[in-house]
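Appendix B, example 12.
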Amino acid sequence: MNINDFDFELPEELIAQVPLEDRTSSRLMVLDKKTGKVEHHSFREILQYLNEGDCLVLNDTKVLPARLIGEKEETGAAIEVLLLKQIEGDKWETLVKPAKRIKPGTKISFGNGLLTAECLETGEQGGRILEFSYDGIFYELLDELGDMPLPPYIKEKLDDRDRYQTVFAKERGSAAAPTAGLHFTEELLEEIQKKGVKLAFITLHVGLGTFRPVSVDSIEEHDMHSEYYLLSEENADILNVTRENGGRIITVGTTSTRTLETIADEEGRFNAQSGWTDIFIYPGYKFKASDVLLTNFHLPKSTLIMLVSAMAGREHTLNAYHEAVKEKYRFFSFGDAMLIK
């Protein structure tokens, strides 16, 4: 399939720049994947689409304040570093700007030397392996010196960094938020559970693939970067019981979907495990785990809209997106949501 098969025209003013004050006040488009029918709701009305015995799957990854602004020690030139993945110890996979200034052996200082880094290796498209040195606790320094790594299409400054975390964020390690989960409050999750819907948690640390566009014409040639995932025995049991009792598995976000599709066996059963996944889901894929998908509205020609198209069909998906543009839905990380049932 060609990358242009997943293109659509998006007016820039529809890209949400700031989060809504109330997480649940976003809009919700409901798309029937069999018929292509579209309905318009507020997010709070998601309750009417959740049934007793269903299971809502949430990604509990926590975003690191992973954007650091430092200085090249030799020249004082400003350097931006985005932490992507901890390799081992104090070695991290990062994206660096401007990358051409940073070669193996180059040192960068942050916070007047509270934190320093040395470049060990260079990679593609600004990728660098850095090793950090510091006194104290790394994550405390990161909280002090780092900013939330908002996507490049968000130009506004985020006043409250917690608005780029889900209310159930727990396991730190992500370079980006699992944004479909941003619509939930603790109160709404309590209402969902009172209705007899189970909650299951997985962890997928969102990494490099989120920041890199598809650069090939034929999508089958695209290589996904690997991301770390974890499913505990307790949560695997919740999923298996849901399946055995005929309930639906409703994945919140593409990250939860990709994780469960990695883990599920051919019968759609789950075993506790952890590892790295580079699964790439696009039309033609047969879902084993996810029955219903809750997601945000994604970038044209992105791997995320390809996953949505695999779930709902490319034609239904693009028709729904054209409807979202016409109805002025808010797009991307701080935007509105779509439920594909």
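The chain has two domains: 3-63+160-340, 67-145. DSSP finds six helices and 17 strands in the chain.
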